Amino acid sequence: MRRLMLLRHAKTESDAPSGRDQDRRLDERGHTDAADIGEFIARHPPFPELILVSPAVRARQTWELAWTMMQARVPKPRVELVPDIYGAEVMQLLHSIRMSAGVDPQRLMLVGHNPGMHEFALALIGSGDAAARHELMRNLPTSGLAIIDFDIEDWSDVSFGCGRLMTFVTPKLLKHGSDD
């Protein structure tokens, strides 16, 4: 059994001072939301062993804030910045997942961007919680987290439609008490 956690970066400023999209930072709400998702992850094991993070500032900040909330209760994972995740399409994300087979984590997290992350989640899921699937179909908002299980032996065996959506949570859902 393998578990994949797809986390979209938190809410950002509209434009970076540099003018480069990759340099956009989290805004105030983004800081709060990333911390809230980190707290959720810390309360809901099992925890990711390998984190693949887009090098964009907003993705790195999202992971760092989430980790700050997790680190007292979660074993320290291996974290890698993966340039291919920035602006990735579905097939690029699938390739990133399959490449993790060399490290062979049981639980893997990607921290990235839409539209690729949303499309990837939808492509992977073949079953799971009906209400969560319905919510995820609508959108993978900023700080949205989809947790997908796969009945596979190796990450190289991941394929579309073979995942089971276990959990889908957003800061908005957390605020409304739908986190368990």
Low-confidence runs of at least 5 consecutive residues: none
The shape, in one word, is globular
Query: Which class in CATH terms?
Result: Alpha Beta
Q: Would you tell me which CATH topology applies? A: Rossmann fold
Describe the structure.
With 180 residues, the chain is an alpha/beta fold. It has one domain (2-15, 22-175): Rossmann fold, CATH 3.40.50. Helices cover 35% and strands 21% of the residues. The protein has a seven-stranded mixed beta sheet with strand order 3-2-4-1-6-7-5. The radius of gyration is 15 Å and the shape is globular. It starts with a strand and ends in a 5-residue tail after the last helix. The model has no long low-confidence stretch (mean pLDDT 94).
What key phrases describe this protein's structure?
180 residues; alpha/beta; 7 strands; globular
Summarize, please.
With 180 residues, the chain is of the alpha/beta class. Helices cover 35% and strands 21% of the residues. It is globular, with a radius of gyration of 15 Å.
Summarize the topology.
Blueprint: E1 2-8, H1 28-43, E2 50-53, H2 57-70, E3 78-81, H3 90-99, E4 107-112, H4 116-124, E5 125-128, H5 130-138, E6 145-150, E7 163-169, H6 171-175
Parallel strand pairs: 1-4, 2-3, 2-4, 5-7
Antiparallel strand pairs: 1-6, 6-7
Helix pairs in contact: 1-2, 3-4
